[in-house]
Design a protein that fits this description.
With 333 residues, the chain is of the alpha+beta class. It has 14 helices and 9 strands. Among the domains are: 118 residues, no CATH class; 106 residues, no CATH class. The strands form 2 sheets. Strands 1, 2, 3, 4 and 8 form a 5-stranded antiparallel beta sheet that branches. Strands 5-7-6-9 form a 4-stranded antiparallel beta sheet. 31% of the residues are buried. This is DNA primase.
Length: 333
């Protein structure tokens, strides 16, 4: 078993990491985008030992960055936008404007605390990652099929989430309005504390229809791993997502006939009862009842403010998360 990570040891390990392990070649090729000027005008920010925070750092050459990382050993690296001037010179200019930046998405496990039952807060386990797997699949597919983005870099956040960096030229050039529109397109859940998903319209949007299919593909495993219907409290929460009181009562009655630990069977009965009533009932609130529950329980929970801002900073790939000692490594969807 690996030794438990001690945050106090980070300052001892970082010099070795930046000298021997940090993948400068791939990292710099990514940041260049074929143009040294893009690199020179990119903002870096560092969190240094002693909780010292430094912004608007930039470099004239890759070698200058490498030397500075080895010298300063930042405990965290954040990346910002590519500006119209070198960020380190911004105080010498009256205008300092972000020109390009990857479109980014941030998904954090703590935003699932109202639906995950295995852990909460900063705690995570293998079961938690089912939510991240579903989120990654939904987002990756939508970005590729709906917007024709192809250069997607998925990165483990180092602690309890994942980041997506969309690196296509069209994504880099998006202004704040374009990023906001795209972020809102991807955002489905509202802030309503009781029910977060409300679907309307005669036809379900193709993005949501596809998301539903992706969720369904893993939903039985999610039901079992998270025991979403294993207690009275959890059953009441799911039943609360069904708008019709008579149908809620019917489902609840059926569930009492099913033994404990049979979450998949309970879900199948819920679906069957709702579909039965949908076939003979024109109540519009019932039209997307199953889709609303699935999306409520498993649709990606995005921090859309991270996606909207052109100058928003995000933890860099390959940096170390200071609280876990884990590397923000890229992964395949």
């Amino acid at each position: 078993m690996a030794d438990k990570y001690d945050p106090e040891s980070l300052t001892e390990m970082l010099p070795f990491y930046y000298k021997r392990i940090f993948p400068y070649g791939p990292y710099l090729r990514w940041l260049f985008y074929g143009n040294l000027d893009n690199f020179r005008k990119r903002e870096f920010s560092f969190t240094l030992n002693g909780d010292i925070y430094a912004r608007y750092i930039s470099y004239n050459s890759p070698n200058e960055l490498k030397k500075d990382l080895i010298k300063r050993c930042p405990q965290k690296i954040d990346l910002g936008a590519i500006y119209d001037i070198c960020p380190k010179d911004h105080l010498q200019h009256s205008v300092f404007t972000p020109k390009m930046k990857e479109l980014v998405f941030d998904i954090d496990m703590t935003d699932y605390d109202d639906v995950r039952n295995c852990c909460s807060g900063a705690d995570i386990c293998e079961k938690c990652w089912r939510y991240m797997s579903i989120a990654c699949k939904i987002l990756d597919t939508a970005l590729r099929e709906d917007f024709d983005f192809q250069l997607l870099l998925w990165v483990f956040s180092g602690r309890r989430g994942i980041h997506c960096w969309v690196c296509d030229e069209a994504a880099l050039a998006l202004d704040g309005r374009g990023r906001s529109c795209l972020a809102e397109y991807m955002s489905v859940l509202t802030a309503n504390p009781v029910k977060k998903v409300f679907l309307t319209g005669d036809v379900l949007h193709p993005h949501l229809k596809r998301a539903k299919l992706i969720i369904e593909d893993q939903f039985e495993k999610l039901l079992e791993e998270q025991e979403l219907l294993s207690t009275k409290e959890r059953q009441t929460k799911v039943l609360g997502l069904v708008s019709n009181g008579d149908i809620r009562a019917e489902i609840e009655k059926e569930w009492t006939r099913i033994g404990p630990g049979q979450d998949v069977e309970k879900w199948d009965r819920l679906v069957a009862i709702i579909k039965h009533h949908q076939a003979k009932n024109s109540d519009r609130k019932l039209k997307y009842a199953i889709e609303e529950i699935l999306l409520e329980l498993a649709y990606p929970r995005l921090d859309i403010h991270v996606s909207k801002g052109v100058n928003h900073l995000l933890k860099s790939p390959f940096c170390v998360h200071p609280k876990t000692g884990k590397i923000c490594v890229p992964f395949h969807e």
